[in-house]
């Protein structure tokens, strides 16, 4: 029999996404945010508390969040109320607010003896790496999610980016504001990012009486 006619044998490999939830990661709900904060405060974990609060406020991609420098958020002996960052993906600046809760946690972390003389806001504990890697950040986020008893495959670093804007859109329906906060260049990207559909549009319309 010709070799060309023999059946091909394939290894019975398990699909990488078997049993996993794939697609867009879910944003955290307000009760999740407060639960994680309380857990980190009780644990006395100054770095992770500041990292979590900053992730929610800044709405930055993981690669930009881990690359933040102390000078980006701290000047004249105090944490700034607003800051900006050049996005690595687009090369364009995006501004973000730093709320009072986040400023307090950042100040505690920046003034920690462990931070003396360091340039990056989230220094890595791995020799040769100046700051946390996106993989390390993803593992930290996974730990937060698991601590709440949530399904870890449904959440990720993008959950942190989506958390605040999801609430802003839910309360205001203002897509333009969300677009600016996320630093998107096209409205279509924002619509896809939030998963806006006809049901959202109808819900907003039903709330308006003329």
CATH T-level topology: hpI Integrase, Chain A
CATH class: Mainly Alpha
Principal-axes shape call: globular
- In total, how many domains does the architecture comprise? 1
Work out the helicity level: 40-55%
Strand order of the largest sheet: 1-2
End-to-end C-alpha gap: 80 Å
DSSP helix count? 10
Low-confidence runs (pLDDT<50, min 5 residues)?
none
Biggest sheet architecture: 2 strands, antiparallel
Q: Which structural class fits the helix and strand makeup?
A: mainly alpha
Strand content: 5-15%
Question: Average pLDDT, to the nearest integer?
Answer: 85
Query: Helix and strand string, N-terminal first?
Result: HHHHEEEEHHHHHH
Please report the total strand number as a whole number: 4
Question: In the CATH classification, which architecture applies?
Answer: Orthogonal Bundle
Can you identify the CATH superfamily?
Intergrase catalytic core
State Rg: 21 Å
GO molecular function: DNA binding
Keywords: DNA recombination
Pfam families: Phage_integrase (PF00589)
Organism: Paracoccus liaowanqingii
Task: Report what the structure shows.
Keywords: DNA recombination. Pfam families: Phage_integrase. One of its GO terms (biological process) is DNA recombination. The structure is a single chain. The protein is 48% helix and 7% strand. It is mainly α and 210 residues long. It has one domain (30-198): hpI Integrase, Chain A (Orthogonal Bundle). The strands form 2 sheets. A two-stranded antiparallel ribbon has the order 1-2. A two-stranded antiparallel sheet has the order 3-4. Strand 1 and strand 2 form a beta hairpin. The longest helix is centred in the C-terminal third of the chain and has 16 residues, at 157-172. It starts with 29 loop residues before the first helix and ends with a helix.
């Amino acid at each position: 029999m010709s070799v060309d006619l023999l059946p091909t044998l394939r290894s019975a490999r398990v699909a990488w996404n078997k049993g996993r939830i794939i697609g867009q990661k879910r944003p955290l709900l307000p009760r999740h945010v407060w639960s994680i904060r309380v857990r980190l405060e009780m644990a006395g974990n100054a770095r992770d508390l500041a990292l979590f609060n900053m992730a929610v406020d800044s709405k930055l991609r993981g690669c930009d969040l881990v690359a933040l420098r102390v000078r980006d958020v701290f000047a004249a002996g105090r944490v700034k109320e607003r800051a900006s960052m050049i996005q690595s993906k687009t090369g364009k600046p995006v501004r973000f607010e730093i709320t009072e809760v986040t400023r307090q946690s950042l100040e505690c972390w920046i003034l920690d003896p462990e931070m003396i003389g360091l340039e990056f806001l989230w220094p890595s504990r791995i020799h040769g790496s100046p700051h946390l890697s996106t993989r390390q950040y993803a593992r930290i986020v996974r730990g937060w999610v698991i601590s709440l008893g949530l399904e870890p495959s449904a959440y990720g670093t993008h959950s942190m980016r989506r958390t605040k804007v999801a609430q802003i859109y839910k309360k205001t329906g203002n897509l333009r504001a969300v677009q600016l906060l996320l630093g998107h260049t096209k409205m279509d990207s924002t619509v896809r990012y939030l998963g806006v559909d006809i049901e959202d549009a109808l819900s907003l319309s039903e709330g308006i009486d003329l």
